[in-house]
Design brief:
Radius of gyration: 27 Å
Number of domains: 3
Helix content: 40-55%
Mean pLDDT: 91
Strand order of the largest sheet: 4-3-9-10
Low-confidence stretches: 180-184
């Protein structure tokens, strides 16, 4: 049975969707005002893994991941400038030029990481009407108020009827004690209140008409409105980074409860990525974009790291544990990934010996499923695969044998789990072997003919020529010779 940790209950729970065979999954996507960075990779890969695994289990998944292209202010106190508007002003562009450019950059990076596109990718700016209507519902329910053209959620009133802080574990008293009063917050009844709709200042570029003012929606409204529109009043899973638990997801829960929406049954959060034990941030000089990772152009990097190295590095840690970046960790991931891909390549070339034995492939399948059923434990799944890399190498060295049906099943298991579920790609094969393999196979065929004709001089010449080109030829007692890149 598949269990998934629920932040709301603080426990792992057996996952059963609301509708048998179907899963509704909503994940908070990026705010598109800058290049995608290492911190964007972790939630993208985490929920891509969940999407892939649920699909592999036979579920029909509607995966919704939003694009925040309006409404996310510079701090969580509903003050400051909209991040996209600020970037547009600095770059002398239209805000939607900024949003479109960085949305494309995000998509490009996700393709490099082999992150599957979601079923639906709605934008905040494309759902202003839905956010206005949801704000009206909360006002009608009595848990919001209008102040000087803006609409705020009344946290204190809500807390009398519901538990505000149930998701994050915070109390209202602690929140109020830790919230300083800022200039411009005079419109609020309490510092803990948050904006559902903000009246636009005269210089604010992005604005829409509403019953209360020309303005823009609060950051928390978009996910509530879009999950309601595409997944319904009650759905299965809401995901995002741990840093979104408060205030973003806590506010989402409150908005939904205030107007009678059931919202998500599971709240799933990936842990943070750190650099040398510190949270990644521009002020600390350890902020690394994905493009810098792929090209090795950041001062902290000793080399470039391929997209699949980043993906494999991420999957080697459980999604709920902290993932600490270092060059040493990425270099180890690079070597591990190369070893795994070589095993897949070797497995594809294995031939069945005459005295074929039996290998228990079911044991590998059971270990892989058990690991992933235990709250997406990708590190345990990868460990199981590496245990069987040794089996593959033993089969290659003829110290173990396998029957033809078991060999075909082993190939299917490796391909399914490595490529379809873990979402890895053989970059080495794509960049080198796609063009090289046909030529090498032709030379290997000529060498086999030379050996059959007992033309040992030609056979050795081809072997030595391939070796000079970095290709090792491995002759076997039984079956055809094999080759691999050195």
């Amino acid at each position: 049975m598949f269990t998934l940790y629920n932040t709301l209950s603080r426990t792992k729970q057996v996952f059963e969707p609301l509708v048998p065979g179907r899963v509704g999954l909503y994940v908070c996507g990026p705010t598109v005002y800058g290049d995608p960075h290492l911190g964007h990779a972790r939630p993208a890969i985490t929920f891509d893994l969940l999407f892939r695994y649920l699909t592999a289990q036979g579920y029909k998944v509607r995966y919704v991941r939003n694009i925040t292209d309006v409404g996310h202010l510079e701090n969580d106190a509903d003050e400051g400038e909209d991040k996209i508007t600020k970037r547009a002003r600095l770059d002398e562009l239209e805000p939607m030029e900024v949003a479109q450019y960085y949305t494309r950059r995000y998509h490009d990076a996700m393709r490099e990481l082999n992150v599957l596109p979601p079923s639906i990718e709605p934008t905040a700016s494309g759902h202003i009407i839905e956010q206005i209507e949801l704000t009206k519902r909360i006002l009608d329910a009595g848990y919001a108020y209008v102040s000087n053209g803006s609409v705020y959620f009344d946290v204190e009133k809500y807390a009398k009827d519901f538990e505000y802080g149930a998701l994050s574990g915070r109390t209202l008293e602690d929140m109020q004690a830790g919230t300083r009063t800022l200039d411009g917050q005079r419109d609020k009844r309490s510092a803990a209140d948050f904006a559902l709709w903000k009246k636009a200042a005269p210089e604010h570029i992005m604005r829409w008409p509403s019953p209360w003012s020309e303005g823009f929606p609060g950051w928390h409204m978009e996910c509530s409105a879009m999950s309601l529109k595409y997944l319904g009043e009650r759905f299965d899973i809401h995901g995002g980074g741990m840093d979104l638990t408060f205030p973003h997801h806590e506010a989402e829960m409150a908005q939904g409860c205030a107007c009678g929406l059931g919202g998500a049954r599971w709240w799933v959060h990936n842990n943070m990525l750190t650099v040398g034990g510190q949270k990644m941030g521009k002020s600390l000089g350890n902020f690394i974009t994905l493009e810098q990772m792929f090209t090795g152009t950041h001062p902290m990097l000793t080399q470039a790291y391929s997209p699949m190295t980043i993906r494999f590095f991420t999957l080697q840690a459980h999604y709920r544990s902290t993932l600490d970046f270092s060059n040493e960790a990425l270099q180890a991931a690079e070597k591990g990934l190369e070893r795994l891909m070589k095993a897949v390549e070797t497995l594809g070339r294995l031939e069945v010996a005459a005295d074929a034995g039996t290998v228990d492939v079911a044991e590998l399948e059971a270990r892989l499923t058990e690991a992933m059923d235990d709250d997406l434990n990708s590190p345990l799944a990868i460990a199981a695969l590496f245990d069987w890399v040794r089996v593959v190498n033993s089969l290659h060295d003829s110290t173990m044998t396998i029957s033809k049906p078991d060999l075909e099943r082993l190939r299917e298991v490796f391909n399914r789990w490595v490529f379809e579920i873990l979402g890895l790609r053989d970059e080495r094969e794509a960049s080198e072997n796609d063009h090289l393999a046909p030529v090498v196979e032709m030379l290997m065929g000529m060498r086999a003919e030379a050996k059959a004709a007992k033309d040992w001089a030609l056979s050795d010449k081809i072997r030595d020529g391939l070796a000079a080109a970095g290709i090792k030829v491995m002759d076997k007692k039984e079956g055809p010779s094999e080759w691999q890149l050195q």
